[in-house]
Specification:
The protein is globular and about 60 Å long. It starts with a strand and ends in a 6-residue tail after the last helix. Helix 1 runs parallel beside helix 7. It is built from eight helices and 25 strands. The longest helix has 16 residues. By secondary structure, the chain is α/β, with parallel strands linked by helices. Strands 3-2-1-7-19 form a five-stranded parallel β-sheet. Strands 9-16-10-11-12 form a five-stranded parallel β-sheet.
């Protein structure tokens, strides 16, 4: 019998870790434990798919047969109550103790619903789990007005899906612009205009004071007194890492479980991956990032230290499709654009330390490209409408020769 690996969590980070371990050790015993009731699913599809047609069994990453073939035991719907890193074991709510030779902490994150008054009313939902999705879909049966709190990726995708379902939709964002983490001010303004043309109202720089209504939500009141009627309120204000088990076990944590370049935590034989970790930079909460960290953690947990590989995620990139428009952004977008130059036409010449944009009126208002350079190298880009340069941009950001 080989070593026993226990994976805490069955999101994409946990699943990727399991795959990596099995690829390294064919005789290893692998157990995945998750409080969520089902198998690993494509979480991003919760906000990308028509709410009326999505089914949980259609968005699984792997079918049940795959787990059987790879001898991976899945313990779903099981809550972990204690992690004992010095004893190399975890304890479940029913008292069962699971020993391990090495473990992966991949408990992910939960939706962060701000502590405004009325947050617990019926009709206020997040969109992180299949249970959340079910609540949202049931609420849609009677809600014709919806407010989405949060102008990030999930918030805007959800707003578009709600609009397609016939809802009157308003997006409320605390920051000064939508997609603040990914877009510069000008690009965000272009995206906001497209949203509004698509029938979605967007208000930035606002603060929610209260969810109005009795037992059920009836609207959102801002601190400035404005009220937006809504029978459905979706909280998409970000995520918070699930670090409680790690903290209680004395494992070093910041905003997430602290992980080094090899995804190793402060506890012996305990690695971490996914949305619950804090690495060199802020976790972007992206599927590809969680998957890559899981692969690294699993590989290193199954190998001798001399063979470990460092975590090297790709440059962050996101693709959205909403309002009939494709949107892509990748790399780093600078906060300040002093010294930037605007260049018209399809083939501008990049200059060192200059960001430039291309707006070709003949291609329509929804064709927008903006690129950012530092020392003559591409560092980030935003494409709206025409995404034909997407792969070339990703290659350049990886340092590869542009095609």
């Amino acid at each position: 019998m080989g070593k026993h690996f226990v994976i805490l969590g069955n999101g994409i980070a946990g699943l990727s870790a399991a795959e990596a371990i099995r690829g390294c050790q064919r005789d290893a015993e692998i157990t995945m434990v998750s409080e969520e009731p089902g198998l690993t699913f494509l979480r991003p599809l919760l906000s990308k798919t028509w709410f009326s047609t999505l089914r949980g069994d259609r968005i699984r990453v792997k079918e049940p047969e795959w787990y059987e073939e790879n001898r991976i035991q899945c313990m779903t719907g099981r809550k972990i109550t204690e992690l004992r890193p010095m004893e190399h074991e975890i304890v479940l709510e029913d008292g069962l103790t699971l020993p391990y030779d090495a473990a992966i902490y991949a408990l992910g994150a939960r939706s962060m619903i701000p502590s405004f008054q009325g947050r617990d009313k019926e009709g206020v939902v997040a969109l992180r789990t299949l249970e959340d999705f079910g609540k949202l879909r049931r609420r849609l049966l009677k809600a014709r007005q919806a407010v989405v709190i949060g102008g990030g990726v999930t918030g805007l995708e959800t707003a578009w899906q709600l609009k397609q379902m016939g809802c009157q939709v308003t997006v409320l964002e605390t920051a000064s612009r939508v997609m603040e983490r990914f877009l510069d001010a000008q690009s965000a303004e272009v995206l906001t205009k497209i949203m509004e043309e698509g029938g979605i109202a967007c208000h930035t720089g606002v603060t929610v004071a209260e969810i109005e209504g009795g037992k059920e939500a009836s609207g959102v009141r801002l601190e400035d007194g404005r009220v937006f009627p809504a029978g459905l309120i979706v909280a998409a204000a970000g995520i918070r890492a699930n670090t409680e088990l790690a903290r209680d076990a004395g494992i070093a944590c910041g905003k997430g479980v602290l992980a080094d370049d090899f995804m190793r935590t402060s506890a012996p034989d305990l690695f971490a991956a996914g949305d619950c970790i804090q690495w060199r930079k802020q976790d972007p909460g992206l599927w590809t990032y969680a998957k890559a960290s899981g692969e690294t953690a699993g590989f290193n947990a199954a190998r001798r230290e001399a063979e470990w590989i460092p975590f090297r995620p790709e440059e962050e990139s996101v693709i959205l499709h909403m309002m009939g428009t494709g949107i892509f952004f990748a790399g780093n977008v600078p906060e300040e654009e002093s010294g930037s130059a605007a260049v018209s036409g399809p083939k501008p010449v990049p200059s060192p330390d200059v960001c430039f944009r291309v707006n070709d009126p003949e291609r329509g208002e929804r064709q927008y490209t903006k690129k950012f350079y530092r020392d003559g190298k591409l560092t980030g880009a935003v494409l709206i409408g025409d995404l034909s340069e997407m792969e070339q941009i990703k290659s350049e950001l990886r340092g590869e020769q542009a095609k």
